[in-house]
Amino acid sequence: MPAVQETVERVKRIDVDQYRYGFETLIESDKAPKGLSEETVKFISEKKNEPAWMLQWRLEAYRRWLTMTEPTWARVDYPKIDFQDLYYYSAPKPKKTITSLDEIDPEILKTYEKLGIPLREVAMLEGVEPKPGDQDPNRRKIAVDAVFDSVSVATTFKAELKKAGVIFMPISEAIREHPELVQKYLGSVVPTSDNFYATLNSAVFSDGSFVYVPPGVRCPMELSTYFRINERNTGQFERTLIIADKGAYVSYLEGCTAPQRDENQLHAAVVELVAHDDAEIKYSTVQNWYPGNSEGKGGIYNFVTKRGDCRGDRSKISWTQVETGSAITWKYPSCILRGDNSSGEFYSIAISNGYQQVDSGTKMIHLGKNTSSRIISKGIAAGKSQNTYRGLVTAHRKATGARNFTACDSLLIGDKCGAHTVPYIEAKNSSATFEHEATTSKISEDVLFYCIQRGLSQEEAVGLVVNGFVKDVLQQLPMEFAVEAQKLISISLEGSVG
Amino acid sequence: MALLEVKDLKVRVEEREILHGLTLTVNEGQVHAIMGPNGSGKSTLSHVIAGKPGYEVTGGQILFRGEDLLEMSPDVRAAKGVFLAFQYPVEIPGVATMTFLRTALNAQRKARGESEYSTPDFLKKVREVSKSLGIPQDMLKRGVNVGFSGGEKKRNEVLQMALFEPSLCILDEMDSGLDIDALRIAADGVNALRSPERAMVVITHYQRLLNYIVPDVVHVMSKGRVVKSGGKELALELEASGYAQFEDAA
Which of B74, B89, B92 sits opposite A468 (nearest CB)? Predict the structure, then answer.
């Protein structure tokens, strides 16, 4: 028996004993003890009632993580994170039942209003219990699987999805109810050993969404998840896994709003997408984590690994993101174009203001024949922020006929911010066609004055010009998100000029 | 009644004085032409009236309906009825002309405490006006001035003038870059907007434009001052004899 395996077996035995004795005391607490250890990993797994194989998987990731170091190649600067000073799990406190929107903090309501989020959704997000028989005829067909402090507490539209055969549930439930699917796909796109943050996530992920769309099924509604952070000092480690089987289609929307915080919060999510033959996955994100205050204090650290695998022929994966929040964004939603004739898309708007630092982009890895990819990136830097696009386009030796088109545009507002473009392009197959375009421009005083002379305020003028700049990408978002994103862009740039 | 009163206006740009005490009064219903050679300060005057940043007013005042215009931000001036037709209208990629028009019009109306236009009312109004100016509908769907010809850009300025119904229109070198046909179309649009409640200030190098937009009063500017004022015949006189005779007068 190899040494590693032996250790694993031993730990497993110890684990069982500890479980027996430790369970009672641990369950009293809502939080895992501070810091990260095998105990923390076991605690989380126990909390979730996970099968042994899942705990094993986590522990392997944890041990691997111990041997890894934080990546430092991104153009971001932040104080060293003390991983032992964080909590890795917190269940939501039993919420006092709210029966009306009046009981919610008016400040929070104001943010929702600015964003134009319908009250019904606010009610859902804030956990307002509807009165029995209270049916809103105008409710939109968006299934909201709301994540509060790491645990999914609300899931809607389940029945309709079930009828179509679509599985949409918290991943913690999927681990118990559909272990064969989870075991088959989890870590198959982003392996536990992938990178420092993904490995950390694999060890301690708390919850997230699981979607499986069976062969030939077009998911009957947009799937949407709102993530929020409420608990102070709690790292958020979401894990999302979406599988579109042969010929299936699904569109998934992820949106975030976070209340103000003055301590840095670590967020290291992993999203894995798998598209089989002729399947299509559209994944849209509107990210609005707390970016820190006007002096650059606080704000979320967002270290995310998102990757899609176009595993089947003619499959397609499309990422659309609107990034406005976070103190630090480190995020590269990527596509592995494995199947022949598969295609990947990346549409991105990344806005940085104040002291925000964004290092974001994509990787398009062409492996199959006649694969194609398209990258449209719009970076907007204001205030004293730094905004970097970092992208990799690569064609494998066997990727005959690979095609890529990349357009990176940066817009600068003011003269204390920076925009950077770092494209990596590798073609190992002589038939590959890669195109790259990049522009950097400043928002012109003449353009602003023109708008203001027509009656727009300075801020309205900036909002209008910026929304024009990002239009190509906004159009990729589902309608209701596009409207919300448009407003968010204006809010994010408030106070960026004058 | 005096709509615009510029009194002894002194303006600097980065330490250099451009206007050295300019005085001008424009009454409601009048069309004034301001002529003068390059560098005489014509465009500076139009920019300062509209409130463009980068100019320092060191003396004098500008009254609009008796109110101190220099105290108002440029968007407030716009809502009050000051409109500047730009010499070089800017391009705003990604913002459909129609969206821009509606955003601007509603911003002005909101600032005045008026109700915003409903979409059908707005569309009806835009169609009417654009038709009279020979502006095709598909032009309104394109980004503001993006890929427009010189003539189209100027027609777009006139379109905005017609939509916003300002009480003071300043036309800065409207004829620059236009061929004779384009000039005639734009000028016809402007003439259609002449009314007893509205005043216009037409800034130009050449007398040519004034054949189409016939002014009530002509001013000659030189070295940052108005050096001569007269009727429309003054423009013809200038065309014949040039600006040189006024250089000394300044």
Answer: B92
